[in-house]
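ligand=FE2/S2 (inorganic) cluster
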Amino acid sequence: MALSLTVNGEQWSLDIEGDTPLLWVLRDELGLKGTKFGCGVGLCGACTVHLNGQPVRSCSTPVEMAVGGEVTTIEGLAEEGQLHALQKAWIAEGVPQCGYCQSGQIMSAAHLLATNSAPARNDIVAAMTGNLCRCGTYSRIIAAVESVAG
Ligand code: FES
């Protein structure tokens, strides 16, 4: 079945089953490898992308739910060749350790700042709770988000 998708502003028509997880469409069909597979059951946040501006777990989101919507991945966060402020902050704070979960972390943080430009520390902690990091970079993640927050 041909499905039409918009990913990072680009339109795609893909011959794919509607119940295919969005994660695998992004990675295997579109070659967008920044979105990671962690747990595969919606628990770790490594696969977080935005669908119509909302963070979703792409491992447990059937691609048919994205038809007619706008998907943004970590590759689409930078605009006009400029890294997103959060990406710059991640570099400045030296957030990543192994790095595996970080694109999901940044996508969750980007949604937080899009909805609340001046979050309190508690807001940041609450917003990031669903994104797990086995390396324990949480304090640097919070520092990076705080450095961008107005
Ligand atoms: Fe999707 Fe863990 S891989 S939430």
